[in-house]
Design a protein that fits this description.
Length: 302
């Protein structure tokens, strides 16, 4: 069910982007809301004799949840003798090794995955410990089994279930590790982007070419777009459209202006395109959004 439109608590106050909130929590939430995840490989196995790969750098993140046996892991120069019940996160781009030891071969759930925010790998923004110990190993084993089942399924819903389970596993790992902080962009980069976002917010009623935004911070447009996406999690044009519709939805709820005039006030001069973009980002046509809000304000029949 689509969320019902809510009238802003203070209609006189503009909806500023979260980048201007002055605490790290809000910026962290803004970053994490843009995360994209994908499972690349998965399974449950007892490793084969001679299982090993030494001093290699993987192109994806890996989860190993150890269920039994013996083996050897090395992550960024740190050696481990994995034990049953231990859960390892082996990050992308970090030198590592693994090997079997003796006849009691390692048994594990495993998953290769990507987790990115814009062009940045999630692991690069976090101080992730190599391993954690879950409180309930059987429950975690069930979650990995459910992930494998979803990955092997051909049901239409499986892709959604895969993402849901993987996001849940990542969240659980971070909670077990006690991680509550992202390494946010450097102050210099963040300051430049704040300048651009401020300009966008002040000029939503005008054309906002990417080249003009790049000129504000003296960057080449293509490089500017990469920096913008890597730090805010989306390209400039997508961000601008979201801000235009955020302001438009505020005006739809709080003014009597015709929809064509509201579209003009947020820099969109094609009413058909405005309606289509509004529906895409809010789930409602502009007229429906306004009508539902007003019906919400009427006293209920008694």
């Amino acid at each position: 069910m689509r969320p019902f439109p809510r009238r802003p608590a203070d209609p006189e106050r503009p909806a500023w982007p979260r980048l201007f909130m002055k605490n790290d929590y809000d910026l962290t939430q803004d970053f994490l809301s843009q995360i994209q995840v994908n499972v690349q490989a998965w399974g449950f196995l007892t490793v084969y004799p001679g299982w090993q790969d030494l001093d290699y750098v993987p192109s994806c993140n890996k989860f190993y949840f150890i269920r039994g046996g013996q083996g050897y892991l090395k992550i960024a120069g740190r050696d481990y003798d994995p034990q049953p019940g231990e859960w390892y996160w082996m990050p992308r781009g970090v030198r590592q090794s693994y090997a079997s030891l003796g006849d009691n071969r390692l048994t594990k759930y495993w998953c290769h995955f990507t987790a990115t925010i814009g062009d940045t790998d999630l692991a690069q923004l976090l101080d992730i410990p190599d391993k954690v110990i879950p409180a309930d190993s059987e429950q975690l084993a069930g979650r990995f089994a459910a992930l494998i089942e979803a990955c092997d399924s051909r049901r239409l819903s499986s892709v959604l279930r895969i993402k849901s389970i993987l996001l849940s596993l990542i969240a659980d790992y971070l909670e077990l590790a006690g991680i509550n902080h992202l390494r946010l962009p450097s102050p210099a980069v963040n300051s430049k982007l704040q300048e651009v976002v401020h300009h966008i917010e002040q000029h939503l009623d005008t054309d906002l070419p990417v080249a003009d935004l790049a000129r504000i911070v003296h960057l080449h447009p293509s490089y500017f777009s990469r920096v913008f996406r890597s730090q805010l999690g989306q390209p400039p044009v997508q961000y601008i459209n979201q801000r235009r519709i955020a302001r438009a939805s505020h005006l739809v709820l709080t003014s009597e202006e015709p929809l064509a005039e509201i579209a003009r006030l947020v820099g969109i001069h094609d009413i058909c395109y405005f309606s289509r973009l509004f529906r895409e980002l809010t789930g409602y046509a502009p007229s429906e959004y306004r009508k539902l809000s007003r019906s919400q304000d009427r006293p209920a029949d008694r």
